[in-house]
């Protein structure tokens, strides 16, 4: 009996084989997201590092701050930043308010269900409709010989170009950018409006609040972080747009993306290091915009949970 007990204890306390205890298993769950991280590394992180390093180097590869200082000292470059900020700001603000009105109408306006699906489908397509196709659509519609321009001139005797309309101005480019800014606002803000609980309205009505008081004291404070975050996102979205503006005016329009393109690939203004500095300035501005967007989005999600 004693021998049998000892043998059982020795069997139960026998350590696992070394090979089984130290076997390494590759985390298979990471295989699915590996292409994403590879894509981010190749097309976002490495190019950003390359641009940042190039912004602080001269043509011989030596470290210098001349390129960064030239962003402020060169009137043409500083003016291009100001024009881009102005276009981005107004297109973001106007697009945000217009998109918010559309989103409220299709979600809480009592419209038929098909209007919501149709508006969201169009918004999803239009928010990504930019570049050369958008420029061609506007030229074919509101160009000097566009169909709408011709109808207004021949039928209503209204010449919008004689009244000062021009795509090459700040207001003209803002009008073009609104085509994708408003739908993007609708796509982003609709989930936030859906997050407004029905019980909040019922509780406000039970406590004697009017409809305007409910919107002023409940809805607006809850939607305000989402609204501000989306405005910042729209700002960053239009700040980096180049294809549409370049299709309208080429290098003649003085905005930051076109200035950057001219510095890197232009025949006259070819200066890659200064172009890297301009790109670095754009990265700083859009990076700050995205940081504020994430912060506002976090606050809004905390309210809507």
UniProtKB/TrEMBL annotation:
Cellular component GO terms held in the UniProt record: plasma membrane
Gene3D superfamilies reported for this sequence: MetI-like (1.10.3720.10)
Residue ranges of domain ABC transmembrane type-1 in the record: 81-295
Membrane topology of the entry: Multi-pass membrane protein
Any one of the GO BP annotations: transmembrane transport
Residue stretches spanning the membrane: 30-53, 87-107, 119-140, 160-193, 214-236, 242-262, 274-296
Lineage of source species: Bacteria, Pseudomonadati, Pseudomonadota, Alphaproteobacteria, Hyphomicrobiales
Family the entry assigns: Belongs to the binding-protein-dependent transport system permease family.
Subcellular localization(s) per the UniProt record: Cell inner membrane; Cell membrane
Highest taxon, organism lineage: Bacteria
Cross-referenced InterPro entries: MetI-like, MetI-like_sf
Keywords: Cell inner membrane, Cell membrane, Membrane, Transmembrane, Transmembrane helix, Transport
Organism encoding this protein: Mesorhizobium australicum (strain HAMBI 3006 / LMG 24608 / WSM2073)
Main localisation: membrane
Protein name: ABC-type uncharacterized transport system, permease component
